[in-house]
Amino acid sequence: MGIIGMGRIGNVHYQNLLTFDDVSVKTICDILIDEVWKEKYPAVSTLVKDYHQILTDPEIDAVLICTPTDLHPQITIDAARAGKDIFCEKPVGFKNEDILEAYRVVNQMGVKFEVGFNRRFDKHFDRIVEYRDENRIGDPQLLKITSRDPEPPSLDYVEHSGGIFMDMTIHDFDMARFITGQEVAEVHVFGDILIDDRIRKFKDIDTAVISLKFVNGMLGVIDNSRKAVYGYDQRIELFGSKGVSRAENILNSETTFVGKEGALADTPMYFFLQRYKEAYAQELRSFFGAVRGEHPVACSFDDGVRAIRLAEAAKRSLLSGQVEKVAEIK
Amino acid sequence: MGIIGMGRIGNVHYQNLLTFDDVSVKTICDILIDEVWKEKYPAVSTLVKDYHQILTDPEIDAVLICTPTDLHPQITIDAARAGKDIFCEKPVGFKNEDILEAYRVVNQMGVKFEVGFNRRFDKHFDRIVEYRDENRIGDPQLLKITSRDPEPPSLDYVEHSGGIFMDMTIHDFDMARFITGQEVAEVHVFGDILIDDRIRKFKDIDTAVISLKFVNGMLGVIDNSRKAVYGYDQRIELFGSKGVSRAENILNSETTFVGKEGALADTPMYFFLQRYKEAYAQELRSFFGAVRGEHPVACSFDDGVRAIRLAEAAKRSLLSGQVEKVAEIK
Amino acid sequence: MGIIGMGRIGNVHYQNLLTFDDVSVKTICDILIDEVWKEKYPAVSTLVKDYHQILTDPEIDAVLICTPTDLHPQITIDAARAGKDIFCEKPVGFKNEDILEAYRVVNQMGVKFEVGFNRRFDKHFDRIVEYRDENRIGDPQLLKITSRDPEPPSLDYVEHSGGIFMDMTIHDFDMARFITGQEVAEVHVFGDILIDDRIRKFKDIDTAVISLKFVNGMLGVIDNSRKAVYGYDQRIELFGSKGVSRAENILNSETTFVGKEGALADTPMYFFLQRYKEAYAQELRSFFGAVRGEHPVACSFDDGVRAIRLAEAAKRSLLSGQVEKVAEIK
Amino acid sequence: MGIIGMGRIGNVHYQNLLTFDDVSVKTICDILIDEVWKEKYPAVSTLVKDYHQILTDPEIDAVLICTPTDLHPQITIDAARAGKDIFCEKPVGFKNEDILEAYRVVNQMGVKFEVGFNRRFDKHFDRIVEYRDENRIGDPQLLKITSRDPEPPSLDYVEHSGGIFMDMTIHDFDMARFITGQEVAEVHVFGDILIDDRIRKFKDIDTAVISLKFVNGMLGVIDNSRKAVYGYDQRIELFGSKGVSRAENILNSETTFVGKEGALADTPMYFFLQRYKEAYAQELRSFFGAVRGEHPVACSFDDGVRAIRLAEAAKRSLLSGQVEKVAEIK
Fold first, then answer.
1. D254/A250 Cβ within 8 A
2. Which one, B56, B123, B314, C88, has least CB within 10 Å?
3. Does ipTM top 0.90?
4. Residue among C136, C253, C257 minimizing CB distance to B124
5. Are residues A127 and A68 in the same domain?
6. What is the helix (H) or strand (E) element at residue B237, kind and residue range?
7. Position D291 in a domain
8. Are A258 and D244 inside 8 Å of each other by CB?
9. Positions in chain C short of pLDDT 70
10. What residues does the Gfo/Idh/MocA-like oxidoreductase N-terminal domain cover (chains A, B, C, D) (predicted)?
11. Are A106 and A135 contained in the same domain?
12. Among residues A111, A134, A156, which one ends one of the domains?
């Protein structure tokens, strides 16, 4: 298979693929590639600057798209037309028409397509779904997602991120659907800039409380912050007629100290690549399982589109100050 | 002192007062009082059916008003005019004009007046305020309150409760102000009937997500359910620029069992009188401290009025489906 | 009923009895009693210096013996002969012959006798016994008791305490029997002075690891320290063929703070009267239930004697440096 | 480098080495090797049955010895004479004279030698050492190690294991030294067969409480069981004059469910390779760091010998029923 885009996330996937017995990375593609990279990636046979070289290689069955978001739809279209199965990082794109065109081509070509919502593969969150599927939680009534980054991205990143809802909350929107198995009907946002006023010029915010009303009547709330100084705060709680399931943070260690002044424990893991280390590997294992036809794709193009619509509804609610209906987003 | 209204909460206060060295309950008043009660309350000298008998007793300095809510304002007015210091159960009343009249008289007569928001005296919640006051949390940015009852009240109770916001969420509205030290500017509610459809005829709901925007820009959310089968779920979290403080539930025991099938722990305490046992005693200790002039009243008439306005804003938001501004509630 | 000895523990029991509807404290006895005490104990009708005045009062059914330990046997004998039911603080005495004589008289007179091992009434420890009785733990195999005081007693107290095993570990020896329902066969002690060298002159120690072999083959270990700076550390763990049950410490609050430097939680409750507050009340409720014939005495004279024999075995093991058999202690 | 012995632990090390950029496995050796293994180990250039082929290869700098324990000393001697740096699985051998001879040759040849006590590299246990080194714990006074396997090994394994102390407790003996930084002076054991009576024929036990007295006067206790049905129970606690540090178990997930019947959490990880997954990788990283001269070997031959002496003392104490002095074991 091949990887298109060797930035941070491309490298995460590359490292994980090295430990897979049944998948080999033949070609990697990046516009910055030069001779030195050969030493950096000894296990790879071909390094290219133009992703079309990957798409025309008949030995390559599947590609990972890890480029900047604005390139996702075009590469998806080209890869689908080349008959490759596709794993594409989230979000599937920025512009609605491009995304829908890519969706159409993927469906038409019948290739497999998976969106990289890594949190679906986290064993702690999956445990909530297990409790739900065992019908321990009963009828779901309330969903709560806490999702706070340890520190804000650079202003440069913010500028091209598509805004907090498209860049950060989109994971939570996907989890809202994944954890409950329900669709969201209405969205209301209270948002503010409480951390760094410089993002005002990008019309973005850094702190938000996003309320959800689901189609089946159940309620939900996501709280987001760009800066939780104590680490990456990622908790989910699903409450229903028979009980509640909660996924707590993963700490740097399970060791405590208790002295005269109080009890000390370690903070949550700080870095998302560390927190979701196993989930990233599991995500690719699942994708290649789907490529081999062992099971359906775990996170479909449709899932990618629906998460984007929730992000769009949130954006509109922030502007309007009122509730927005998801069905009205096309 | 005297107690007016010897229902459940009147009796809770009575039992607590028995253990106070420096306060004695001279008279209790209840419309149901009969001869048998003398044996039930041996420590009390006088039992009366008409609360005016308490108000005219010059030996009585202070009264506890524990009657149904609709009587609170009139008894408050009468007690204030009689020069008694007043502890009044929450909420201070139902009708706005009655409440404001009572407020006016209390101020005019200069008696001390405390509203019974017992959670302010819970050591676990107070610990959050301590962390805040020590400036460990930094600038507060997000408040989260989980407040779920173990089981819904009777339909009869619901009918006269004033609705979920006035009966149940009012505690959370008071905590929202108490924990943050900030005033709420805007309220948005998503609410639904997910537990028992029979409350629909009272135009009430049983599940709610209430988002808050504070005057200082910080955000908040309260989630309410009338039925958490696992017990009384009372958690608060205050997140700020320097960290987060969380108060967790109090369990029936700190003992666990771990076997092949998993680890078992006990559920949160089920009954509010058990959960807030110490807080109820502390609340009265504080009130009598204020009566003796040792410190100001901990929860003033103004606090009572402001909580009611938040409940009213929530009610309006549920009806309008949109954000309501608290300043517009008079 | 009457209380003999109004030191710290006598007063704890007195306060608890005030809240009991069905028990009234008629007389209290203390050699230090004077006129001022009448104001201090308004609920008591008689205050005496000589405990025989309690024993000869036909209106008094039961007595609490809360004097220094060396007086326990004689007062027990006198009270038993006067036909009173007896609650006696631990340990039942110091000298073996005195204890056995008191035991004989109690049996002969057929009065009820309970030893004040308050920890048997702690809901957290009782929960382990519940798990055991539900046969969740299976065959018990290992018992672990951590029992550490927050600070050492005064040297003066140490001198008359009977040594660490008789004063402090005796509670743990009783718990070893209570939690497992088994008898101890052999004891081995490693002990040392690691906190304050001044207790060496009393031939006492302040830190110990006490290993136990039970008659049924199961094993156990108690660790003791006179000084856990972080609070009163009281944990028990029972491990068996089907699982393990653990009782953890009770913290000053369930509120945490997580900041950049780590997560903070509160320390275990510091003072034993606070930690075991509910257990002390429950202990007396149980005693008076037994006095009224509702159930057998929960902690018998025999239990008191067996705990003392374990303390004696530990003392001998510390001296001999070897294993001591409990059956050889008479 | 080369690996000698490709059983379970040899394969664990092999998998970890695949992810190291700076180490390559040239040759693996196993007496069972055949043609099929070439496909199983594509990254390896040479597969041999005779370990001498590894020792004579000048391209190989270091070897991992992962054979059965009785072969460790001879291979160590041969590898040291061949000038290879050596990583040897625990224990370093069974027979005292063989071990001491190997030790002598290693010292004489000046090669680096590390014993595979993987728990030294566990981040949770290391955190205790960090707290100790920061002088937060103060003077260490008590060490407690809980070490329970999820299920007993096969009887066949037990027969050749060297007994519970040499096979299982040896890890705990090493941790006792590592966590405290102190040497053990005396050992006392209570042990029993409480799980499976069939091991009686090998004169082994399955449950033990091992008390320790350290040279500096501090005390310790290890409890061992061959069968904790709920998973691999690995906890350590170090208590001192200024506080206590505790490393708790790692659970299968940090997700809970709370329903009417109680709260459920996941069990500790069951399998030692899963529990210590990161520690095994870290152990090798450290060894190759030492081989490259970046830091001293983290766990020396002397550490290996001292752990064996503690195991021997425990064995003697079980037989004698009394305390054994470690200094008397040669």
1. yes
2. B56
3. yes
4. C253
5. no
6. strand B233-240
7. no
8. yes
9. none
10. 2-117
11. no
12. A111
Query: What pLDDT sits at residue D84?
Result: 97
**CATH at C262:** 3.30.360.10
Answer yes or no: is D59 within a domain.
yes
Q: Is the pLDDT of residue A92 over 90?
A: yes
- Domain enclosing residue D311, as ranges: 120-276+296-328
Domain count within chain C: 2
Q: Which residues of A touch D (CB under 8 A)?
A: 15, 18-19, 123-125, 127-128, 131, 136-137, 242-250, 252-260, 266
In a shared domain, residues D269 and D205: yes
Give the span between the Cα atoms of C46 and C35, in whole angstroms.
11
Q: How far is CA B175 from CA B125, B224, B247, B314, in A?
A: 9, 14, 12, 15
CATH number where B60 lies:
3.40.50.720
| pLDDT, tens digit, 9 for 90 and up, residues B135-188 | 999 999 999 999 999 999 999 999 988 999 999 999 999 999 999 999 999 999
Q: Are B83 and B63 in contact (CB under 8 A)?
A: no
Verify whether the Cβ–Cβ distance B124 to C244 is below 8 Å: no
Residues D99 and D132 placed together within one structural domain of the fold: no
Contacts of B325 in chain A (CB under 8 A): none
What is the reported pLDDT for A38?
A: 87
Nearest residue of chain C to residue B240 (CA atoms): C259
Q: Are D130 and D236 in contact (CB under 8 A)?
A: no
- Across the interface, do A257 and D131 touch by the CB < 8 Å criterion? yes
CA–CA distance from A49 to each of A6, A12, A54, A203, D329 (Å)? 11, 19, 10, 35, 67
Interface partners of chain B (CB pairs < 8 Å, 3 or more) are A, C, D
All residues at 6 or more sequence positions from D14 whose CB lies less than 8 Å from its CB, including other chains? D3, D6, D25, D28, D41
**Residue C301: which of C102, C71, C79 has the closest Cα?**
C102
| 3-state SS assignment for residue B66 | coil
The answer on B141 and B88 residing in a single domain is: no
Question: Which of B139, B219, B228 is nearest residue A190 as measured by Cβ atoms?
Answer: B219
**Record: contact C219-D209, CB cut-off 8 A:** yes
Same domain assignment for residues C314 and C194: yes
For residue A258, what pLDDT is reported?
Answer: 98
- Considering the domain architecture, whether residues A167 and A315 belong to the same structural domain is answered as yes
Most A CBs within 10 Å, among C148, C225, C230, C261, to test the A interface: C230
Chain C residue closest in CA terms to B126: C255
DSSP H or E run through A209: strand A207-214
- Is D288 a domain residue? no
Quote the CA–CA distance of A19 and A39 in Å, as a whole number: 19
Residue whose C-alpha is closest to residue D330's, from D313, D322, D320: D313
| Residue C12 one-letter amino acid | V
| Chain B: residue whose CA lies nearest to C134 | B257
The residue of A233, A258, A260, A266 whose CB has the most chain C CBs within 10 angstroms, and thus the best one to mutate to test that interface, is A258
Q: Nearest chain D Cα to A16, which residue?
A: D19
Q: Which of A85, A111, A137 is the last residue of a domain?
A: A111
Q: In this complex, do C262 and A263 lie within 8 Å of one another by their Cβ atoms? A: no
User: Is A235 a domain residue?
Assistant: yes
Q: Are B62 and B205 found together in one domain?
A: no
Mark the ranges of chain B whose per-residue pLDDT is less than 50.
none
Mean pLDDT, all residues of chain C: 96
Mind telling me how many Å the CA of A268 is from chain D's nearest CA?
12
pLDDT at C310: 98
pLDDT per position as a tens digit, A262-320 = 999 999 999 999 999 999 999 999 999 999 999 999 999 999 999 999 999 999 999 99
A85 touches A76 (CB < 8 A):
no
User: Which amino acid makes up residue C222?
Assistant: I
Whether B267 sits inside 8 A of D260 (CB atoms) is yes
Q: What is the pLDDT of residue A203?
A: 94
Most C CBs within 10 Å, among D184, D209, D236, to test the C interface: D209
